[in-house]
Design brief:
Elements lengths: L9 E3 L5 E3 L1 H6 L2 H16 L2 H19 L10 H28 L4 H15 L14 H10 L18
Antiparallel strand pairs: 1-2
Helix pairs in contact: 2-4, 2-5, 3-4, 5-6
Length: 165
């Protein structure tokens, strides 16, 4: 934990530690804190930090390489969209893994949903973003947890596509 300026933050890094701001710690019930820790642990266990660094680096390299073709496009908005979309998928993956960890520890999916409801009411004011942010809209996270799958993935099959030849 660290002293903060009212920031409600939990994060994990490259090591094995999980960081929780004092304000977040004080604002949560015990069950909500356990749910936050399960979410951050899921990020660690799935190596999301390393994966995110790899994807961000690859996007940066491609962006720099395309400078030779289109020098005015360096650090294009498309890079931000791609990275944000990727990070949102990692967040929902961590949500779904956290449910498994909580259930193994004797908690329920409803305990995690209570945390998400608290986030919706207290942190985001019912909002969130769907484009340029690293966390999915809170409604998408709640839907994913309730349904048990990543609602951000759009699945299609070949029979759904109509080809005119």
């Amino acid at each position: 934990m660290w002293k903060d300026r009212g920031e409600l933050v939990a994060a994990t890094g490259l090591g094995v530690s999980i960081h929780v701001s004092t304000s977040l710690y004080m604002a949560l019930t015990w069950d909500q804190l356990v749910a936050v820790m399960a979410h951050e642990l899921a990020h660690q266990q799935a190596n999301h930090v390393l994966i995110d660094i790899g994807v961000s680096s690859a996007i940066w390299i491609v962006d720099k390489a395309t400078w030779f073709i289109t020098p005015w496009m360096i650090l294009s908005p498309v890079d931000g969209l791609i990275n944000s979309a990727f990070e949102r998928n990692l967040e929902i993956a961590a949500d779904l893994m956290a449910i498994e960890y909580l259930e193994n520890a004797g908690y329920t999916k409803n305990d995690y949903l209570a945390l998400l409801a608290w986030i919706k009411e207290s942190v985001t004011g019912g909002g969130g973003c769907r484009v340029l942010c690293d966390h999915p809209h809170i409604d998408d996270r709640i839907k994913a947890v309730k349904e048990g799958w990543n609602v951000l993935h759009v699945e299609t099959s070949r029979r759904d596509v109509d080809f005119d030849i």
